[in-house]
Design goal:
By secondary structure, this protein is an alpha/beta fold. 19% of the residues lie in helices and 24% in strands. It is built from 14 helices and 29 strands. The strands form 7 sheets. The chain has an 8-stranded parallel beta sheet with strand order 19-18-15-14-13-10-21-20. A hairpin with a 3-residue loop joins strand 22 and strand 23 (544-550). Helix 8 runs antiparallel to helix 9 (423-434). The two termini are 33 Å apart. 51% of the residues are buried.
């Protein structure tokens, strides 16, 4: 890969290219493709759709010629809830080339790699502008009220300054006592950072510090302050312009859960149908990855669905309505939910949950954890975005980590070792693992450098690469994620070790890193092109990546470098004169185009003008070249 990317025919699902991001079934949508003049004469452009799995072609018409690019527009009737399409370009030499979500191809392409228009209800408008801050409640902050609470029997109490125990039986039992009121007391810190969406890992009572082994979904853990503390936290967050989402385990409960206790060894109990039993006595049962404390839900049960995900009386609905008013859910292990042997109820579960959310509080988001190739579960029908590592986290780690470092647990790298990637391979991996997502799902995938399940990025990072890594998180399509403590420069060797108590007495020492995160987050939130703008890759080299995010109103040019670099882009790669927004990247114009150069590691962003195009034509209108 090289600078030839800058002069490649391009389409994505953003507003520059698609007239309606959320059409209804049967609507007519207009789509555009841009072709550089340097590509050579194009005699004709067609769209190839696949309604009801039968190919259908539509003729595109040239509508504009802007800054060395010819724009073609075609009309599509959206005939399925997920409507796939690609472009066929007929060239002057008699050949044809296909353009789909993976790029340009001489041979026919796969339907699974088509661009996609989706008719299911869209995510709330605020979601594309979200910057997420993930909080592990036991380790964020203790309020004064926490001091008066008696630790539970399962807990091994720890002082806030104690080292995290990440190996052995005490790992899930080490209890620091952070609570929801403690989070509320530090909302000013989040406002300073510029984040606008808090993601709380589970808050329900459990027998561990991580609380993924819920004892009940009907109440908030009293150790966190109970139901009233959650309502107060969400209310305080909303007053400061922050939203809050919770975390549900749709794949399993804890073995101390009231539903499991009612049915374990009790054939005939109403809750027996909630789980998979391996013997008639209901002694043995299926569990998550064989962990006995996490019995797996059987979603064949109508009653389980009624209690948990279906309707206004369900768990899903309860916490989205006043007085709690959560702004959505992140679903744990969504990829395994509803799947066991020859059964696959995943689609039923996710669609039911989303329908309930729309009825209870339509202004909410639903995110699903699926840590690998996630796209097949994310057609836009329910999950608005994926908590996944294949399209962002692992490629960025492979490029910016010290070679050969171990990567135990969570991040899912092959054989537990961080690979060594070139910039070309980062680009290739990102394209491969985002191609099958509809555009609007891509906008809501989580761009996480690390989470509570992974080592912290800084632990293995090459010196000076944090601005590059987090810069990519805030500028690539998706929701940037800060795992609480990253802005303090915390490290952690695995997912357990990364769950470090926040060192609030070290704010002054962490000022440079906090300021870095804040400036990058505000870069994201201030510029609409970085929230919903299209993305066009301009260069992928071993040491540097260059792309532009574009809207009609503005564009942002992004340069991310691991080492020293000098890249010259064709004069038509982008329009206008770059104005520095962040970083110290050189940008010099010559007759050959723009040369971007600098010493790495480095991250930079530049303001560019928007893409000036005529409005989309009305369906059925006759278009003419301008």
């Amino acid at each position: 890969m090289s600078s030839h990317l800058a002069l490649t025919p391009h389409h994505d699902g953003s507003a520059l290219y698609v007239s309606s991001p959320a059409p209804a079934l049967g609507d007519t949508v207009r789509v555009r493709v841009r072709v550089p003049e340097a590509f050579g004469p194009v005699l004709a452009v067609h769209t190839r759709s696949n309604p009801d799995r039968e190919p259908r072609y539509a003729v595109a018409t040239p509508v504009a010629n802007v800054d060395g690019w010819e724009w073609w527009e075609a009309e599509l009737q959206v005939e399925n809830p997920v409507h796939g399409y690609r472009f066929l370009l007929s060239l002057a030499d008699g050949s044809n080339v296909w353009l789909n979500a993976t790029g340009l191809h001489r041979i026919e392409t796969l339907d699974s790699e088509d661009f996609r228009i989706v008719t299911y209800p869209a995510a709330p408008d605020w979601a594309a502008n979200a910057v997420m801050y993930q909080i592990f409640p036991d380790r964020f902050a203790r309020s004064a009220a926490a001091d008066g609470r008696q630790p539970p029997e399962w807990a091994v109490p720890a002082a806030w300054s104690d080292e995290v125990v990440n190996v052995g039986p005490d790992t899930p039992r080490q209890f620091y006592g952070g609570d929801l009121a403690g989070i509320a007391e530090h909302l000013d810190h989040l406002v300073r950072l510029g984040v606008n969406l808090i993601y709380l890992t589970p808050v329900f009572p459990a027998q561990s510090n991580h609380r993924y082994d819920a004892q009940s979904f009907a109440r908030v853990d009293p150790l966190l302050g109970g139901d009233e503390a959650l309502a107060a936290l969400v209310s305080a967050a909303h007053e400061r312009g922050l939203r809050v989402i919770g975390d549900l385990t749709s794949n399993h409960s804890g073995d101390a859960h009231e539903w499991f206790r009612a049915s374990h060894r009790t054939p005939g109990a109403a809750e027996s149908e909630f789980y998979y039993w391996l013997d008639e006595a209901q002694e043995r049962y299926v569990s998550w990855l064989g962990v006995p404390s996490l019995p797996k839900f059987n979603w064949n049960s109508d009653e389980l669905r009624r209690r948990f995900i279906d309707g206004e009386g369900s768990v899903v609905a309860k916490w989205l309505k006043p007085p709690y008013s959560l702004d959505g859910w992140r679903i744990d292990v969504s990829n395994m939910t509803g799947r066991y042997l020859d059964e696959d109820l995943n689609e039923l579960v996710r669609r039911t949950a989303r329908r309930t959310m729309l009825e209870a509080n339509p202004d909410t988001i639903l995110l699903g954890e699926s840590t690998n190739d996630a796209a097949s579960d994310f057609p836009g029908d329910a999950w608005h975005g994926a908590m996944t590592y294949a399209n962002f986290t692992r490629p960025v780690w492979g490029w910016l980590s010290e070679p050969g470092r171990p990567a135990p647990g969570g991040i899912g790298m092959a054989l537990g070792t961080i690979p060594s990637y070139s910039g070309e391979e980062v680009y290739a991996a990102h394209v491969r693992f985002t191609a099958a997502f509809p555009w609007r799902v891509r906008l809501h995938n989580m761009n996480a450098l690390d989470t509570h399940d992974t080592p912290r990025f800084l632990t293995n990072a090459r010196p000076g690469t944090v601005p590059v890594a987090f810069g990519l998180a805030v500028t690539l399509p998706g929701i940037p994620v800060v795992f609480a403590g990253d802005e303090f420069g915390l490290t952690g060797s695995d997912g357990e070790h990364s769950r470090t108590p926040i060192p609030w007495d070290s704010v002054a020492a962490a000022e440079p890193t906090i300021d870095l995160y804040s400036r990058l987050i505000h870069l994201r939130t201030v510029h609409p092109a970085l929230n919903s703008g299209g993305i066009r890759w301009l260069h992928a080299g071993s040491e540097v990546l260059v792309f532009v995010r574009e809207t009609a109103e503005e564009s942002v040019l992004v340069v991310a470098a691991r080492g020293d670099f000098s890249v010259t882009l064709d004069p038509h790669a982008f329009a206008g004169n770059p104005v520095t927004l962040f970083g110290e990247i050189g940008a010099v114009r010559s007759s050959h185009g723009w040369t971007l150069s600098g010493s790495g590691p480095a991250f930079g962003a530049f303001a560019l003008p928007g893409v000036a195009l005529p409005d989309f034509a009305e369906p059925g209108a006759v278009l003419a070249l301008e």
